[in-house]
Design brief:
Blueprint: E1 2-9, E2 15-20, E3 23-29, E4 36-45, E5 50-56, E6 66-76, E7 83-87, H1 95-104, E8 112-114, H2 116-128
Parallel strand pairs: 5-7
Antiparallel strand pairs: 1-4, 1-6, 2-3, 4-5, 6-7, 6-8
Length: about 130
């Protein structure tokens, strides 16, 4: 399964943007992101009523970049605000990338990296409505 995402926060950058109605707006200066972070346009997560969050593994991408990747898994969070993992190469996160990504989320959210099948199953439920 391939999906398209918009990068809002570039890997290694402290500048966090939000994508709203086709435009980027700077919303915060934070600790540098360990991954390219953004959203899947038009696909709503019922846990927060916002577009599904996504991570693109690989080198830094500029904010506003639209990129397509293979679903490689997801970061499952106890609050339901799961993050889809995408990658161009189709290898999934390295153990180091997975550790950095999990450490980015507060432990109270109980983050877990799940595989491609769990991610696809969750996405298919969202797509069916």
């Amino acid at each position: 399964m391939r999906l398209r995402m918009v990068v809002e926060w570039s890997k290694g950058s402290p500048f966090r943007y939000a994508w709203k109605e086709g435009h980027l707006a700077l919303v915060a200066v934070d600790q540098p992101a360990p991954v390219n972070y953004g959203l899947i346009p038009g696909l709503i997560n019922p846990a927060d009523g916002e577009e599904v969050d996504a991570v693109f593994l690989g080198p830094p991408l500029f904010p506003g970049t639209e990129v397509e990747g293979e679903v490689m898994g997801m970061v499952w969070l106890a609050d339901g605000d799961h993050k889809i993992l995408l990658e161009a190469q189709g290898q999934g996160p390295s153990p180091r990338e997975a550790q950095e990504l999990l450490a980015w989320f507060h432990r109270s959210r109980k983050p877990l990296v799940l595989g491609p099948q769990e991610a696809r199953d969750w996405l298919e439920k969202l797509l069916r409505g």
